[in-house]
UniProtKB/TrEMBL annotation:
Signal peptide range in chain numbering: none
Name the UniProt record assigns to this protein: NAD(P)H-dependent oxidoreductase
Pfam family, one: Flavodoxin_2
Keyword terms, alphabetized: Oxidoreductase
Domain of life, per lineage: Bacteria
Length: 180
């Protein structure tokens, strides 16, 4: 399985969690890591190159820190430019060119996990906060898999090992639709 990790972290020099995860993932075979902020320093996205990367991958991982309860702005700009409907539906008989691929998220956050519960500080789960990516996966015709979430104070060595193991699986668990 060819996996591409699209890392959308605006400040990897100061990252503890994402840097550790990427180091661990980089030790696996068939994984390509693309640091999007390093590649797109001027925020000019090479759309043709990005589409080619997606077409060659079996699994797409969007990795980012949770900032203001969402993904960094470059990820949204990247999606707006790369996920053009004409390109997306250029598969056989108008099907999605990404049909059958897997999409998962790797999200690091710094607030306690209990804050992201129905009874917690924010009243919403991370799954609910990230719901827009599930809808995007439906539109793209790809499988939306369970996100890999990391609370910043987790045991990073153990978490990085679990991340690498997850990436090495032939198939990831699919996120149940409309699951709270």
């Amino acid at each position: 399985m060819k996996t591409v990790i699209l890392l959308f972290h605006p400040d990897m020099d100061r990252s503890l969690v994402n840097r550790k995860l990427i180091e661990s993932a980089g030790m696996k075979r068939n994984i390509t890591i693309r640091d999007m902020y390093a590649l797109e320093r001027d925020h000019q996205i090479n759309v043709d190159q990005e589409r080619q990367v997606l077409e060659q991958a079996d699994r797409i991982v969007l990795q980012f820190p949770l900032r203001w309860y969402s993904a960094p702005s470059l990820l949204y700009k990247w999606m707006q430019e790369v996920f053009d409907d004409y390109w997306l539906h250029s598969g056989p008989e108008g099907s999605s060119i990404l049909q059958g691929k897997e999409l998962t998220l790797t999200v690091a956050y710094s607030e306690p996990s209990y804050d992201y519960t129905a009874d917690g500080k924010y009243k919403y789960t991370l799954k609910q906060i990230l719901r827009n990516f599930e809808v995007i996966a439906m539109h793209l015709g790809i499988k939306y898999c369970e996100p890999f979430t990391v609370y910043e104070l987790d045991d990073l060595d153990k978490t990085a090992k679990a991340y690498a193991e997850m990436l090495g699986k032939d198939e990831l668990p699919i996120q149940p639709l409309n699951d709270q």
